[in-house]
Design goal:
Helix 4 runs antiparallel to helix 6, helix 11 runs antiparallel to helix 12 and helix 13 packs across helix 15. The protein is globular and about 95 Å long. The chain is built from 26 helices and 20 strands. It is an alpha/beta fold. It binds pyridoxal-5'-phosphate. Pyridoxal-5'-phosphate binds next to strand 10. The site of pyridoxal-5'-phosphate has 12 residues, from strand 10.
Amino acid sequence: MQTTQRRGALDRFRLIAALLVTAIHISPLAGIHPDGDFWLTRVLARVAVPFFLMTTGQFALKSAVSARKFLRKTLALYALAILLYLPLGVYGGRFRDLTLGGALRMLVFDGTFYHLWYFPACVTGALIALALLRLPSKAARFAAAGALYLAGLLGDSYWGVAQSVPALKSVYESLFQCFSYTRNGLFMAPLFLLLGREIGAADDLPRRKTCFLGAAIALTAMTAEAFLLRDHGFMRHDSMYLTLPALCACLFAGLWQIPMDPRPRLRAVSAWVYVLHPAVIVAVRALAKRTGLTGILVEDALVHYFAVCALSLLAGGLLSWRPPKPSKTGRAWIELDESALRHNADFLRSKLPKGCALMAVVKADAYGHGAAWAARTLRRSGVNAFCVATVAEGAALRRRGIRGEILILGYTHPDDFPALRFWRLTQAVVDADYARQLSAFGKKLRVHVALDTGMHRLGLDCRDEGRIAQVFQMKGLRIDGMFSHLCVSDADTPAGRAYTRAQAEALLRAADALEARGLQRPRMHLLASDGILNDPEYALDAVRAGVALYGALSDRTCAGLRPVLTLKARVASVRTLKPGQSAGYGLAFTAQRETRIAVITIGYADGVPRALSEGRGRVLLGGAEAPIAGRICMDQLLVDASGAGPVRSGDVATLIGTSGGRSLSVQDWARACGTISNEILSRLGARLPRIEKPMKK
Ligand SMILES: *Cc1c(COP(=O)(O)O)cnc(C)c1O
């Protein structure tokens, strides 16, 4: 089951949780049944905040990128909430006689308004949870988070225990100088964040029924626990119970396994209800006073509660409204296969000698696949160095959180040297003059020295040993490597093979010459995709794999590689031509017999080469190959679907990829247009949304 589909029930329960939090702040049953109110607001409703924390852990702790995004978003929301509640806080005198310590305590732990403690708790808790994730085992993480929770219990509903031990009591009393409650980011949040993450990632959960049965048992136990603690006067506060983690884990695991469509809007509404309900309480009171309805709207707690819930939901609904977003699969799109990308990286690595690193070339938006996606995926499979063509591509990767070495293979204008330095990018030294410019920048720049061993494109002449040595002695450069590029590594002729060997030997000779002059032999790389497959003996310290990573060699196929990209588009309309009727620009297609034409919603502006017009290209549609009819237009193309099964408007055609047992490859396109797959892939348009297919477990 896809994880996105599992979130549906959690999204719905979040709304219930937000309304339970609202109940805590109103005590709707207080006047009717005090014990019932205690149960509702101090027992049942205590599920709400841990539940929020668990849903947070489930998505925010998935990866470093998601954690960073979550922290940024939460801090922004906290700042907004602080501003929103500033007037109420001032009015309520919360900031009177505020010391620096008091302000810090409020900002970091207690929140600037009474329910806002949740936001700093999320941040602190997430930071602690991230630190705990570095522990080697699951058991160690949960032991640490559990210990924090137990310590928190003693300052909360088990206060009676802490109080009976003088040493403990004084420890807690000094802790309470730093925060008012132990139900905070330090003691309570880490455990629930980690539980959410763990359940979200587990694939061996107990069955749904078992989970809900467990939740019912845990709720019964928690009821008994809470009433006992209350009646024995143990409680300082009533947010944390011994049985609470079990209850929340069972409930969460049960809900997680209900297949329901995700409801992102409900997620937003529940967050708004949480943030807004105290303000709504104030608003309802003010309104009641104005209209003289205080007797019913405020003093009847149950009516008050429903009024606050209704208004909060209304406000949350309005604030979470967004204009409808165009869907990703409505017209034409690219699907990306994460497992294929990882497989290809592993396959290429299996060709390399031990200790040789795989650098992933992700220039031109990773050959049309999406550079950030490719880099993120490859980092997870152990790739630590990337190559791009431009400084902007490098900066974009850094902005998306990609760490490791990023080498710019092309020229960077001196105006952009500050950007090189700021984003910690590594620049290729394209010739000796350029080395001087880089060195003169003023601050040390990271570089790899390019050598021209026969391609005559970029690099210092490999025979110019004196000049190469000079570059290696320049003070302004931090030289992390030296490389060259092969220009006939795809050639299978004796002359081609000899040229490749000569290039490799020239690079090695240049390194020897450096050593002979007493300079350190740099880290070296030479091979790109074809080289890795044809000449692995020259793998040296690293290789630069581009097109092979994407499973599409320039002009041939390789059995070990799997294509990563699938290109699809919808059928707009189907029409029938009578014999002799023509279609499209220039009337380039004429029907020989009755012909069914399907109009496909993709054109040359999306990167389909116009050279595939008039039958030179095909699409997979209705279980058959349908040849392209007439001239490809900017945004659409026509295919002859006469040989296909039934085809209707809205159907999906596959342009690159596999469907119904048939496959069309980028290489097929490249051959038909007299080019290489690299060109086709790298031109697939920015107009195509990309959909990431997660790893199959
Ligand atoms: C593009 C490029 C590569 C990657 O080439 P592939 O054939 O796609 O593997 C490697 N090195 C340099 C210098 C490049 O420009």
